Amino acid sequence: MKIKIVTIGVYGFDETSFFDALCKADVDTFCDIRSRRGVRGATYAFANSKRLQARLAEFGIRYIYRKDLGPTKTVREKQAAADKATKTAKRKRTELGEAFIEAYHTECLDAFEPQSLIDELESDAQVVALFCVETAPEACHRSLVAGKLAKTYDLEVEDILP
Question: Which residues of 89-101 are buried (b: 16+ CB within 10 A; e: fewer)?
Answer without folding.
Answer: eeeebeebbeebb
